[in-house]
Amino acid sequence: MGSCFSARVKAESLPCNGVNIKHAGRSGNDRSGSSSKVSSSTVPSTPRTQGEILQSSNLKSFPFNELKAATRNFRPDSVLGEGGFGCVFKGWIDEHSLTAARPGTGIVIAVKRLNQESLQGHQEWLAEINYLGQLYHPNLVKLIGYCLEDDHRLLVYEFMPKGSLENHLFRRASYFQPLSWNLRMKVALGAAEGLAYLHSDKAKVIYRDFKASNILLDSSYGAKLSDFGLAKDGPTGSKSHVSTRVMGTHGYAAPEYMATGHLTAKSDVYSFGVVLLEMLSGRRAIDKNRPSKEQHLVEWARPYLSSKRRIFQVMDARIQGQYSSSDALKAANLAIQCLSAEPRYRPNMEEVVKALEQLHNSNNNDGSRGSRGENPRRVHRSSSNGPTYHRKNEVSNGKPASYAGPCVSPLRT
Ligand SMILES: Nc1ncnc2c1ncn2[C@@H]1O[C@H](COP(=O)(O)OP(=O)(O)OP(=O)(O)O)[C@@H](O)[C@H]1O
Ligand SMILES: [Mg+2]
């Protein structure tokens, strides 16, 4: 978290294989690595001005001093995490007046503060307000308000007590116990419902940055999507895709999108498949600390996933015994479908939701609900595939890295 309190520099625009890959370094005890951002030549335009977006949003406009007071002057010990945008602080506000409250009173909020040196941050900040100011769903994080004052750009969210899925899957701290199979299925279902809503006719939005760190968890592990800085309106009329700068997170972004900049809802489905695979395996999408053949999760796991005998070599050893072999195969099969190289062979998110509902119900109907323990009917695997803890990886020679934070915000076109 150290970088929250010192200047953090983003290196911009390193040309690479015809695209610009950007890195945002991170440092600190628990988070280190880089983000990579890729851009091509098409710059999206927005039909709405900043004033229109802010006025129409129904969000509270907070004075900077109010958020300073709510977070006790952005106290270091109230940092919840750090992303490419900046640090996120815990704070308290009165639920009626929305003014700063004493810690432990009123409602808890998460305040995301944009690094002032961030070049792309303003557009991400505005895109977040644009989308979360209009979209409401139980599986999307609630944006309460924002602050725009001098150079200050902040976002105020509902506080998500269990933090991000990324922390639960990959963090070393002892208070992050491995998520059980049941909770993984619950989180997968909730996140899938959030994406299905975004893709539905009610919203028609492509999320574009689906990854474990953007899935936040409430006190009962309900999943909510956060970070709409890269979200994009879906294609309209007879168009099959939207053309965009290629942005997102290496390791999660769909290959055809990386190659062409053509964005469809199926790009999100691919990213969902990557996260599902992370949940099944307990491995990061990209892990440079592993042997070279295992660094790219999808490439490494693909041959195992399609083999009934070998699938269990992919499964996270920390949850062995918690699921039936048939459920593991179904979940792996769903991941394979989402990760199809051809977008048209990927299911849509409604279909993914249905498949996950069955998996979730199947496991809950056999009396094992909430169990983290052993079940005699469940599969055990002998090979070791323990937790992995590592740095986030950097982009190198155009190869995917584990993380690329939000990039230039595509506003409504
Ligand atoms: N509403 C929230 N409630 C609780 N914790 C939060 C909330 N929003 C963010 N966090 C914490 O702060 C961390 C950083 O979030 P942030 O979205 O800034 O970065 P990120 O998702 O890790 O990376 P990126 O910059 O790519 O989005 C999250 O991983 C999470 O642990
Ligand atoms: Mg995020």
Description:
This is non-specific serine/threonine protein kinase. This protein is α+β, with helices and mostly antiparallel strands and 413 residues long. The chain folds into two domains: 135 residues, Phosphorylase Kinase, domain 1; 230 residues, Transferase(Phosphotransferase) domain 1 (Transferase(Phosphotransferase), domain 1), CATH 1.10.510. It is 27% helix and 16% strand. The strands form five sheets. Strands 4-8-9-7-6-5 form a six-stranded mixed sheet, with helices on both faces. Strands 1-2-3 form a three-stranded antiparallel sheet, with no helix packed on it. The chain is globular. The two termini are 36 Å apart. The structure holds adenosine-5'-triphosphate (ATP) and magnesium ion. Magnesium ion (MG) binds next to loops.
